[in-house]
Design brief:
Number of helices: 3
Helix content: 25-40%
Oligomer: single chain
Distance between the termini: 22 Å
Structural class: alpha+beta
Number of strands: 6
Number of domains: 2
């Protein structure tokens, strides 16, 4: 089972809003409790390891905000990963998002009447996206694949 490590940063997100992220640093630990410190407001909290949840996901799990329906869980396998080259990572993220946008735009253009002003605007936007992708690719951007 994966365990929390002192000094490492872990993060959890809201089930309802993936953009709502909490980050905690493990300050101390015992066999059954984890002491965490919020990176946002530096509050310190001691949480008990939830045994059945930990066994189910094969990683220690705690509930920093309380245990209730749809509550966020902090798990030992959710360690924050900091990319070594942040600038390259940002290029890769932008390139990946543009590729997704190109696919969605091309798909939506299939149902637009040929020659309509809406389709012509969409085609212009698509061309702009493709130019930006070529520019990012020339800077070494790669797709981020989540498997």
């Amino acid at each position: 089972m994966k365990q929390f490590e002192v000094g490492k940063t872990y993060q959890m997100s809201s089930i309802c809003n993936a953009d709502c992220i909490w980050e905690y640093v493990v300050a101390d630990r015992t066999a059954k409790t984890i002491t965490i410190q919020s990176t946002h407001n530096s509050t310190i909290k001691k949480c008990r390891v939830h045994t059945s949840e930990s066994n189910a996901c094969d990683a220690e799990t705690i509930f920093p905000l309380g245990n209730y329906a749809m509550c966020p869980k902090l798990r030992a396998d959710s360690q924050k990963i900091v990319p070594e080259d942040l600038e390259q990572h940002q290029l890769n993220v932008e390139y990946t998002n543009l590729q997704k946008a190109i696919l969605l735009l091309a798909k939506s253009m299939c149902i637009m009447p040929i020659g309509s002003s809406r389709r012509l605007r969409a085609q212009a936007t698509l061309d702009d996206f493709k130019k930006r992708c070529e520019d990012l690719k020339s800077k070494g951007a790669n797709l981020i694949l989540n498997v």
